Amino acid sequence: MQLPTEVVDDVRKRLHRVAGQVQGIDRMLADGRECRDVVAQISAATKALEQAGFALVAAGLTYCLEHPDEAEADGYALGSVQKMFMKLA
């Protein structure tokens, strides 16, 4: 399945932000920051990753609904995309 360029660009931006968050978390640990502050940042990074995954699955579901035959031929039947969604939920 070919994802729309705008979806790929959006997800890549999200991933770059998450990478920065993870580096920040590492610095926080190295600096001895408070546990609650570190956990809050881990939670934020986790949510950001989940949102990136949901954006991909949403694009996949849209593709499946708009092009059911092509999606199935590509190995992305609606049921398999729904399973990807459930992995994130």
Sheet having the most strands: none
Average residue-wise pLDDT: 94
Distance between the termini: 22 Å
| C-alpha Rg (nearest Å) | 17 Å
Question: What is the CATH topology assignment?
Answer: Methane Monooxygenase Hydroxylase, Chain G, domain 1
The outline comes out as elongated
> What is the helix tally?
4
The number of E-state strands comes to 0
CATH class: Mainly Alpha
- Give me the CATH superfamily: Metal-sensitive repressor, helix protomer
Helix content: over 70%
Outline the low-pLDDT stretches: none
CATH architecture: Up-down Bundle
Q: How many domains, as an integer?
A: 1
Q: Which series of helices and strands comes N to C?
A: HHHH
Counting helices, strands and paired strands, the structural category is mainly alpha
Strand content is under 5%
Characterize the structure shown.
The chain has about 90 residues and is an all-alpha fold. It has a single domain (about 5-89), classed as Up-down Bundle (Methane Monooxygenase Hydroxylase, Chain G, domain 1). Helices cover about 85% and strands about 0% of the residues. The chain has helices at about 5-30, 35-65, 70-75, 80-89. The longest helix has about 30 residues, at about 35-65. It is elongated. The model has no long low-confidence stretch (mean pLDDT about 95).
